[in-house]
Amino acid sequence: MAQKILVTGAAGFIGFYLARRLLDRGDEVVGIDSINDYYDVRLKYGRLEQTGISRDRIAYGTLLQSSRYGNYRFIQLKLEDRERVNRLFQNEHFDSVCHLAAQAGVRYSLTNPHAYIESNVVGFMNILEACRHVPPRHLCYASSSSVYGLNEEMPFSTHHNVDHPVSLYAASKKSNELMAHTYSHLYRIPTTGLRFFTVYGPWGRPDMALFIFTQAIFKGMPIDVYNHGNMQRDFTYIDDIIEGVVRVLDRPPTGNPAWNGKHPDPSSSKAPYKIYNIGNNSPVRLLDFIEAIEAAIGKKAVKNFLPLQPGDVPATWADVSDLIEDIGYRPCTPVQEGIKKFVAWYREFYNV
Fold this sequence. Notes:
By secondary structure, the protein is an alpha/beta fold. The chain is built from 11 helices and 14 strands.
């Protein structure tokens, strides 16, 4: 059955794709985004245009009807704006909430820490409180592979302890998981946290490696290759992420009757609470990733090799066995295929 679904971060990379997918299958969607200037807002407005929300019609706090989708409305809103967030929930009575809005980026958190507390902690607090007063059947929210921090046991499993983050961004995402569990326990709100692993694809964020490398190679500029190219990332194509999100969104957790407080499993609870990894389950060396970009563009990169940056981890690798077992889904898009699609989009969008 069609649902009324709130998507926060609807002008963002993942939120844009999710909103389109839900609209295409017939759900009624309300999108929220603050449209901040963390990166080039032209990209955010470009995504909104794809869903029938034109830049010149946007006014803070005003719900806009899409010109392309009869079942889509959008509102520019900061999640720290508690009164307006509460009013929106009281007026709309959402069946499900998918919370993707966040201050993103590991390195930015080293120089702008307050932005992460305001958006990722205070903003999420306001979403949880709104859900408490007007409960949805399911609250899904974006976590991150960054929460694994200093953990070196590979592949990363949701059953592992994640108490040693190495960036404030990661700490804010870990805090979201803890906050969600509290509300699942106290108020029986079904919540699912999704730990995304290095999402990439067309319309992707310009602060991510694929975008930065592609832009630099086209311009003939050198690229910074950290950890001397020995980084490994579980790059996950955007379509695979969205398929996982939609399947999880349609399956609210009910609590794990086998959960044992003497041997607590971090991925579940007696409460209606669950954590999943969504990753490709196939880590790729950074140098191999760059080679795939070079092949798609048809031009070699000039590489500037550098040591590991503060806040970065040398490798990520998602254990998706729970996602396969519970949801029946496993991401599978090869990196070479996903990069080709991104480069084709980049050529068209930037006319290069």
